[in-house]
Amino acid sequence: MNISMITASTAMNGLQNKLDVIADNVANVDTNGYKRKTATFADVMTNVLQQGDDFEQPGRATPSGYTMAYGSKLNSIQRDFSLGELVSTGVDTDIALQGNGLFEVQTAEGNAFVREGQFQLMPDERAGAAPGGILTTKQGHVVLGANDQPIRIRNGFELRVDSLGRVFEYNSAVGDPIQVGVLKIVEPTKPELLMQADDNLYVIPAGTPREMVVTTLNLTNIPPDGMLPLTVRQGMLEKSNVSLTDEMADLIQAQRAYQMAARALTSGDTMWGLANSLRG
């Protein structure tokens, strides 16, 4: 196989991965809290080869040598954690984060993180549990408080969440809201290390220290300058940050590049066929 065919096949493989990334983004354009994926590429076996003495002509200003590469490959797939559009829902259990942060939740496999704040109050079915509901995701994963315990709201009370993530239960017949906890929110310091899981969740890969990936935020500890890292918004949801226009533009570019690589592969195969026929 000649160099042109190797380069074309390598490029086609990387472009197919990029097309898969674009397809995943488009499929989740209406998924609340979804963060678009981006693909980065790197050269494959790039070498600088020296040219012969015949290329050393008088007056030449450029260095001798030329770059020989074997196409490009998919280097990594990263998440774009930029803020999506916040929309008002008027639902008390819908909570959005305005800033760089994730809710921490408890699943059957362990703790995980989620950006989507479409929560609900589910009856607490644990033995001996007091009447009331605990805050969960729509898939049933328990939303954790700062004390690593579920957020509980008693029957007959409404959920209230302020901009600092403090959770209250409120009943007009009782009086002032009663604080029952604080949402546990983390900031991804190295989001590229987070691994995508089912139910729009993120998990820390096995063997990776937690402190290397996320930092637990304490929004109630307001800094001297009053600038909080994020704000909690009740009654709102964050939409996906996928731009369908940008994805379609990337799709056209990737398809055109794939077609060019496919033509180069076909041309290389044709030349090999001609060479074999001449030798025969």
Automatic annotation (TrEMBL):
Q: Which SUPFAM superfamilies match?
A: Flagellar hook protein flgE
Which Pfam families would you find in this protein's record? Flg_bb_rod, Flg_bbr_C
Asked whether the UniProt record includes Transferase among its keywords, one would answer no
Q: Which top-rank group of organisms is this from?
A: Bacteria
| Keywords, ordered alphabetically | Bacterial flagellum, Cell projection, Cilium, Flagellum
User: Flagellar basal body rod protein N-terminal domain spans which residues?
Assistant: 7-35
InterPro entries, per this entry?
Flag_bb_rod_N, Flagellar_basal_body_rod_CS, Flagellar_FlgE/F/G, Flg_bb/hook_C_dom, FlgE/F/G-like
Q: Which PROSITE patterns match?
A: FLAGELLA_BB_ROD (PS00588)
Q: Does the keyword Methyltransferase apply?
A: no
The record's family statement is:
Belongs to the flagella basal body rod proteins family.
Q: What is this protein called?
A: Flagellar hook-basal body protein
Q: Provide the species name.
A: Paenibacillus arenosi
